[in-house]
Model the fold of this input.
Amino acid sequence: MSQLTAGRPREESGPHARDAAPRATRVLVAPDKFKGCLSALGVAEAIRSGIDSLTTDAQVQVTVLPLADGGDGSVEAAVFAGSRAQTVEVHNADGEVQFTQIAFDGTTAVVEVAGTCGLATVQGPLRPLAASSRGLGEAILAAALLEPKTIVIALGGSASTDGGAGMLAALGAEFRDEQGRLLEPDGGSLHRIAHVDLRTAFDFDGIELIGASDVTSPLCGVQGAAHVFGPQKGADPELVAVLDQGLRALVQACNTIPNIDAPALADIPGAGSAGGIGFGLLLLGGSLVSGADYFLDLLRFDTHAQQCDMLVTGEGRLDDQTSGGKLISAVCSRAGNTPVAAVVGASTLDQQAARQLGLSKVIALRDLTAQDTSKDPAQATNALQNAGRILRALASGPFAP
Done:
């Protein structure tokens, strides 16, 4: 296990080489969001503020790189990395018109479920049957009109369980019942769909569609979208059963689409991501990828990591699920020989488990303050600044975790 150090010394040359001052320790602060509290940029800036507030003899140079894993904050991270923000009008999870942002760098557009029709857009009580992914389809259409080569759909934070039908309807697909009547699909109406026509949908020829998520659930069944994630969206056991039956009906209805093996697509790992939006993207010919790794590539993480002496990452919680492809795990696996410290809201991992993950140091806000920081941005910011001061001390000299 590498230890955090004060950085590699400058190479010496010339008659006065011994008098040369060592260069600053380069620290990369690259966290994910603290969900429901602070954005990734907010977390990174608070840690940087704490590092900069503590004066020591050693010089420390801090760079921030807000990260994302395909959840909320993905558009913001892309904009921070150089994409332009574009404001678009969509329908949110409640069906109300709102403005949201997509990101575009001239080649790749990034669109978020969370910021268009996700749980973060719900103003009133959760409505698991009425929630629709229509707003995402509207944002995708706006992105497609920019003529990108690739549209990346960040699939985290969804409020709906409609199999992506709302998204498809916004893109021009038609859903009809047994009598041939046009339907506006949502989670509660999927069981009425008898025929699906994609011929009227937007033509994505020449545009690659990529769904970014670390969810590996299929569309239907006990490991599917309704059973695993429905309760988070307000569905009790009875409604979970209704939603799962609706998703099964949607798959059957999609058998009317020429050259589409809907049951096979529904069984692909990730088809159940974002309430089944993953399935909808597969129907359009899209692909599903690991959100953490894709966004690390998009944000040029490896280049930044190679240029630092100490890497600080973080997210709201560190636990036994982190190793299953979560962002901190991906950061550790791609950090090379650079030591990695994590600042998290709470951690349930012991020191050995943290080391196995690749972490040299873990700082949990829960250990720094008696205040509950999970829903209080001001308290979280103060605690993150304290964590930054600890990190500054660690960056000023070698330490043993």
